[in-house]
Amino acid sequence: MRISILDQSPISSNQSAKDALYESMKLAQAGEKFGYTRYWIAEHHDLPGLACPAPEVMLSFIGAHTSKIRIGSGATLLPHYKPYKVAETFNLLATLFPSRIDIGIGRAPGGSAEATNALSDNFLQKVYQMPNLLADLLHFLDRDFPKDHEFSKVTAAPVPPVTPETWLLGTSQKSAVLAAKNGLAYAFGQFMSEENGAKIIQQYIDSFEPKKSGQLPQVLLTVSAICAETTEEAEEIAMSSLIWQLQTERGKGQRIPSIEEAQKYELTDQEKEKLNIMKQNMIIGNPQEVGKALHQLQTKYKTDEMMILTITHSPKDRVNSYRLIAEKVL
């Protein structure tokens, strides 16, 4: 099983945004040391507790502080941008860090309606145009526009020695079909979906249309997991992330609370029910429990790779969680 890292660059209650971003860099370094396949960082806009609105900027920083782990965006939210600019940016990264760059493409807004309007015009219209935006991006990356196309003479320079690897990220049947139609690798966000992921992934595999000789469907499953030496410790550490999510839904979540702060949070009956549901969509436990759960998901979803999202208050707890999982799984 291949395992990888998804990082949302969370800001803990005792950190600045700069602290959180430097911890993201250190996490990528740790992931490289532990044997993780790739490190992706997400794009969010004006969301309390998350420090990265621009993965492409962080990737240049992280690439300069690592040497072999694949690095990418999880995701670049394409409806906000012109495909040409995205192609230029990631071609530049792939020129600086050859054979290491992934472009994870998504279509979510990544923030509030107000932040979305401040960032881009006609976002919903661009969401509807997602198939065309994606097609243009792939043409720019592969330099294969039809000769009569208006952009046929435009190059997304610099042209790297190895084209960035493009993934489509999603949580629905629509994203799976779009990935299959374009012959793209597909990343399913199980940690943020209530859909039948196994069925969606199977549809992607069944409808995959290879664009190159010998090309096969490639699937990655993203899960939320927290691992510690004991189950009790993992449950305790996980409360910071869970309470932060509840606080955010109430409009009161600013940064990831400490374990002590989370324990003092007074839950309503409705929040207690919500918390239990949230825990069911996470993997929380000791190395034996987490490893077993990951292998079960791999079998159920027929995945090539598991990508793990871990949010804790303490950076040490986060790195330790990834270390324990790597030692058990790899």
TrEMBL record:
<comment type="similarity">
    <text>To bacterial alkanal monooxygenase alpha and beta chains.</text>
</comment>
<dbReference type="InterPro" id="IPR011251">
    <property type="entry name" value="Luciferase-like_dom"/>
</dbReference>
<protein>
    <recommendedName>
        <fullName>Luciferase-like domain-containing protein</fullName>
    </recommendedName>
</protein>
<dbReference type="Pfam" id="PF00296">
    <property type="entry name" value="Bac_luciferase"/>
</dbReference>
<dbReference type="InterPro" id="IPR019949">
    <property type="entry name" value="CmoO-like"/>
</dbReference>
<dbReference type="InterPro" id="IPR050766">
    <property type="entry name" value="Bact_Lucif_Oxidored"/>
</dbReference>
<dbReference type="InterPro" id="IPR036661">
    <property type="entry name" value="Luciferase-like_sf"/>
</dbReference>
<feature type="domain" description="Luciferase-like">
    <location>
        <begin position="1"/>
        <end position="298"/>
    </location>
</feature>
